[in-house]
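Quick one - inputs below.
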Amino acid sequence: MLSQRRLERRPKARSLFDSAIITRAIADSFPKLDPRWQARNPVMFIVEVGAFVTLIFFARDLASHSQQTGFDLAISLWLWFTVLFANFAEAMAEGRGKAQAEFLRRSKSDTSAKLLGPDGTTVRTVAASALRKGDVVMVDAGDIVPADGDVIKGAATIDESAITGESAPVIRESGGDRSAVTGGTRVLSDQIVVRVTTNPGESFLDRMISLVEGAKRQKTPNEIALSILLAGLTIIFLIAVATLAPFSVYAGAHQTVTVLIALLVCLIPTTIGGLLSAIGIAGMDRVMQRNVLAMSGRAVEAAGDVDTLLLDKTGTITLGNRQAVEIVTAKAVAKNDAALAAYLSSLPDETPEGRSIVLLAQNSGVVSGDGVLPKDAIFVPFSAYTRMSGVDLPDGTQIRKGAPDAVLAWVRESGGAPSTELEGEVERIARAGGTPLLLARSKNVLGVIYLKDILKPNMTERFARLRAMGIRTVMITGDNPLTAAAIAKEAGVDDFLAQATPETKMDLIKREQASGRLVAMTGDGTNDAPALAQADVGVAMNSGTQAAKEAANMVDLDSDPTKLIEVVEIGKQLLMTRGALTTFSIANDVAKYFAILPAMFATAYPAMGVLNIMRLTTSQSAILSAVIFNALIIIALVPLALRGVKYTPRGANSVLFNNVMIYGVGGIIIPFVGIKLIDMMLAALHLT
Amino acid sequence: MTAIGWLQAVIYFLIILALTKPLGLYLVRVFEGGRTWLSPVIEPIEKLIYRLCGVRVDEEMPWYTYALAMLGFSLAGFAYLYVLLRTQQWLPFNPQHMPPMAPDLAWNTAVSFLTNTNWQFYSGENALSYLSQMAGLAWHNFVSAAVGIAIAVAVVRGVARTSAKTLGNFWVDLTRATLYVLLPISVVGGLLLVMQGVPQNLHAYQTVSSLEGFSQQITGGPMASQEVIKELGTNGGGFVGANSASPNENPTPFSNFFEMLLIFLIPAGLVYMYGKMVKDTRQGWAIFTAMSVIFAIGFTVAYWGEAGGNPLVHQLGVAGANLEGKELRFGAAASALFATVTTDTSCGAVNAALDSFMPLAGLVPLVNMQLGEIIFGGVGSGLYGMIVFVVLTVFIAGLMVGRTPEFLGKKIERREVQFAILAVLVTPVLCLVPTAVAVLVPQGLATLSNNGAHGFSEILYAFTSTNANNGSAFAGLGSNLFYNIATGVNMMFGRFSVAIPALALAGALAGKKASPMGAGTFTTHSPIFVGLLLGTIIIVGALTFLPADSLGPIVEHLQVLQGKTF
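Output:
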């Protein structure tokens, strides 16, 4: 019995601060206290060690009834909070992914498969988990596709909502670029034969689960570089604080270990150290919420670095359909005559272009046709070989429309002697970015039909945005250079590659990379696969072939080529967030020095009181306030770390200026205010 | 503070500014192998040296070979100087019959000169033969400066080149730096100093009867020749113990001004050379601006501190600037300027007793050195130290524009960050750790002449100065076995553990492709970048030392205000 389980649609984004996610993140913060987990992050590891050591000192105080007991306990508790807050940030970032992974796991539940025998007719029912690469299975309407594979026979409509969250069914058919099916989706109509392409555990769904869960998350190159910087700064401050112990002994201002640890924790970059992994996970998560599956964090990061964006013209820049906008008639031909011929030849033509010609002819008023061809008329469909289409009417009249050179050749073949009078028109249309279709009847050329590429709405603004970000856009098209140039100009892309073949596309990518640029592209066909692999960021459409999906480092589940632009923005946001919080973290140190240093030496050197510019109540309240500020700022910045800093596409210098003002200068000022407020609160509550 | 005092500093800076570009262009010629107007005279000598030493001019070296050659050359130079100092009693040009230097002091002195530090735990006039001065110390004054220039040139090449494996030939850079840059200026400068009255002879010291009728010994020797390279090569080791405060080394206000010019001359020219070699002079001027800003702040604080005078002295009815420990022919302004200039660079020559500066004015030299000698800095070492900070700044701030940070089109990634942070790490470790040891062990406190915060400043200053390869001293700290060895080790690491990571960084940068600059990459010559660079230098470079400084000069300053003395 095959599984007839109803498919659930994969839920789209939950709110970032869903209460269920928060509750779970709080619970998840505690197991992460495990020192083995913390050791991955030297900054927070130091904080945890500090928290532990201060706890021991607190215990010693308890035993000796020291006056320091309360203070040591307070510092220790806030250090533990600091670590927990960082853990919480990471758990929050993982929250949405975990929820989604759980859902995906459910849709992976047991299915069975109809395995085809080697003879191609015998069918055996096996568990889906028993399928291996190369097995051939049959999937009927209502069945769940048991594994990832390629359709090798038949065509079917498939409901992919379990994976993509989109309820509109898609068509998958053997051959061509729409042959890939994904395990866990359901066939709605017809029957297909599928060759399995993955082994159990390696399927798209499996990969998706581990990706959204972040289970195999590896540090990205930039994250590693930043970690090295943070570790270096931590060592520097460790030395500065450790040597302060003998210095203060010399100065006769003995410092307790608790105070020194408090100073150390305040100086090391805990803000960025605590939020670093959350920023990375949240970046991946934001990509996922856009329904793009990034195979690694590295890919998202690389997206932020992209210099050149290769965009396919059709489907990305223009709507797939070209529309007829004008019929230019030859001098000797009556306008109505040409329009009628165009109308007749297009009536049986079901392509959007064909329908738009019918519409144009009707709207022009010259044709009052009823939409029915004379009986026995024979439709000659378009083929890549003839590059034209048309009708053969019962009276022997043949009408053809198509690529100008092909139609001219046909006219000559039929014994006509076409004039060159329309050459100018053909060129004008091509130059304007349109597609000229030459229209001919028997031995005569009647006119030219102007098919216009229709730009997708808002593309020009998007390209302007990209240009402001410093990204060059290159349009890839099979059109001739003239047409390509015109569309490129209209759309506002920076460059174009006309008459593109997989080879020229590959060459372009390599050329760009050789000059030090990072290239991103989208693709769906098998012949896109090498280019997708070569590009630094390759986004495959989920509707595309298995080969394309494997070569790419991202898969867009919505199969929307313009999504690439959003991914680039997310990548940039990710890097910006890291930079902003690093700057903020380092800038914070200024105020902390002014809080803690006078407090440490006020007893030995009363003159140092002058440096207590915040006028903090007591030495202990000053140190405690700095530590509390240091912990709370992590929590305060969690939303920023998860959402990313506000991104506006502008030139780098202006972005830099703004962020330096907010996170650099702001990072110097804010802690002065924050520490003072906390100190006032501690004083008001008589906690000092 | 007086108008004349300020005018002196402003004129000084304007002259440096005017000389920066011409010298920079000359340096570009020298290190890109072009012909200069001195080539007809120098080229035959240069070729002869290459032939004698078997140097193949066209043979380029990757960074590690360059670093090894540099290390090998430096260590051989150490051995040579050590042996010379230990055997000077048997060698010629020793009219004063100087005995051999003690082993630990000879170690300290040899390291000191090979690392361009010129920390002196001895007084030249009582310890060294003329041969040791001329063939030993002066030799190192030239070549240690040339080594610094060579490393800087190699690092600049690393920044400038793309997809390259090599940084140049150490032996060629060393030779050309000496022959084309240091020697010609030294010859002219030395003659100028002789004109001002600096001795240049090989006689024994003269014994004369003074006007008061006392018998006095006047030191002589080949001073002018050593004085000029002492400043030009930012070495700073005086022929006599009193250094540039001595009327023999620095007789007139003009010689004083001229010596200060010599100190900034090459470091400033190198900055322009950097801009020119990376094919964007704005890059050089941006660094120049950042350096100038810190220089201006330093001078202002030092001059303000000194001109303001000592409140405790004022209470005694003596108004005016703090003139304790100063040469009256220079006064407060020229002394503050000299102290700032000599510690901005790794020179360390002094014309006044820094120990007697007001605490805040004394803080200026200390902070200058703690920044890592990058405000113009030592010849060469200042530039490569600054480039390390530029890389760090690019990385920290650059992320904020939403791209992997790029420095002149090259991505700053793991390796670059690693080497940059390694170079920056050295200063605090080598400065703070030995200071901590010194205040803990009895040997560290044994030779300290002051106690309390001032005594702490003296120890901190000693290790800061040796670590920064500056060599100026706060005085008050005597030589003993502990300090001879500890400061020696400190100087050695202070030099090489910055230079080697800097070369490695250059090697990593040289191998990179440069992506074209676009709207998405921020420029490293804009005012905002200069501001960021200053922020990074101050927050990452200086704040590390704030706890230590606050127990030294800062608390001292606050205590003086309250009437405490040491």
